[in-house]
Amino acid sequence: MNFAPTEEQALIQESARRFATTELAPIAGELEEPSARPRYLAVLKQLAELGFMGLNVSPQYGGTGAGVVAFSLAMTEISRACASTGVAMSVNNLVCEVVQSIGTEAQKERYITRVCSGEYPCGSFCLSEAGAGSDPSRMKTRAVRDGDGWVINGTKMWISSAEYAGFFVVWAVTDAAAPAGKGISCFLVDADNPGVTVGRAEHKMGQRASSTNPVSFDDCRVGADAMLGAENAGFRIAVGELTGGRIGIASLALGIGSAAIDVARRYITEREQFGQKIADFQGIQFQLADTMTELEAARLLVLNAAWMKETGQPYMKAASMAKLYCSEAANRACYTALQFMGGAGYTAEYPLERYARDARVTTIYEGTSEIQRVIIARELLKSL
Ligand SMILES: Cc1cc2nc3c(=O)[nH]c(=O)nc-3n(C[C@H](O)[C@H](O)[C@H](O)COP(=O)(O)OP(=O)(O)OC[C@H]3O[C@@H](n4cnc5c(N)ncnc54)[C@H](O)[C@@H]3O)c2cc1C
User: Fold this and answer.
1) Which of 101, 220, 275, 308 has the fewest CB atoms within 10 Å, i.e. the most exposed one?
2) Could you read off the pLDDT of 206-240 as tens digits, one per residue?
């Protein structure tokens, strides 16, 4: 197995690194302020111009067609600078891929092109509900047939980018009599549909530049052409697409963890206590060695999952292992990096406190660490 990037992958990684270092990192802290929303949206537009909103999407629909490994490499670079930007990029690539894989030609033309061109800052993925997070098969949102179309009622929770999304990919129960997960369908709903209300943004611990909102559907009427994929096949679609999304979040987490330890590494080679550099204490060196080893293992796991997806192999177990390990390793790296920097790391003078806050949710969204373990164990036992 060869993990050296191809020429195209290396170019995309380099262009992401350049943008992240020169344009994004200097403003990432400021983007957390609510008043900075226009700047954040301008950043998302720049990502679209760079071709990062549809990296694994066909150029026919405005995507880059660069593949999953290139997507993963670019995600890590962008998230090194700003995880709030990384999460919008990850969700956009996810929703574009859902529409690409099961949408009609008209749906692809209408929605993917608008996200990839930057006309829409984002698309949103509306699966979770207040009572259906780890187990979305128990969702309560209903879509009832109405003439040729459907009427959707219900509320989705914790929806990333909902405030500035151009459209929503929404899951709703279409056959209430079917067993859990068997009667769910997927719909494309425009954000300006009069039946859609985006609620107040959550006040979050981290990734604050990215909005997270409830989205309510009140007698929200959509045409028959709004259905994405086959009727009652929605849950399978969600599970399949979330598997790909996990590669995005694993890459994002790796970016945060790597950025944290980079800052701390520089700091410990400059700061002195007890008459020597902090980096000269062997107790510190051992922790540094362990952290870098974990991050390297995380990098290999996520590249492997991306490569498996790109080469058409079953990758569910690999994606869950990558998501589990990268997100947990990123949190450990942030903890260690902050500890290396003592009081200075805890203040906003350094970006460490933001990295530590941003990393925390990576073990929660797109399937918690416990759910990744459930999936990994299920896949392992299934293959016996
Ligand atoms: C910032 C943010 C952004 C988000 N963005 C989106 C989005 O864009 N779209 C969307 O649809 N959702 C989104 N979510 C929702 C997210 O996917 C859910 O929060 C997540 O799936 C967990 O669901 P829950 O919060 O309801 O936790 P719960 O399901 O209530 O879980 C609570 C705890 O119980 C554990 N647990 C649950 N089941 C098991 C089990 N079988 N075995 C062992 N432990 C278990 C969990 O791991 C967790 O530790 C977002 C959430 C956040 C915080």
Assistant:
1) 275
2) 999 999 999 999 999 999 999 999 999 999 888 88
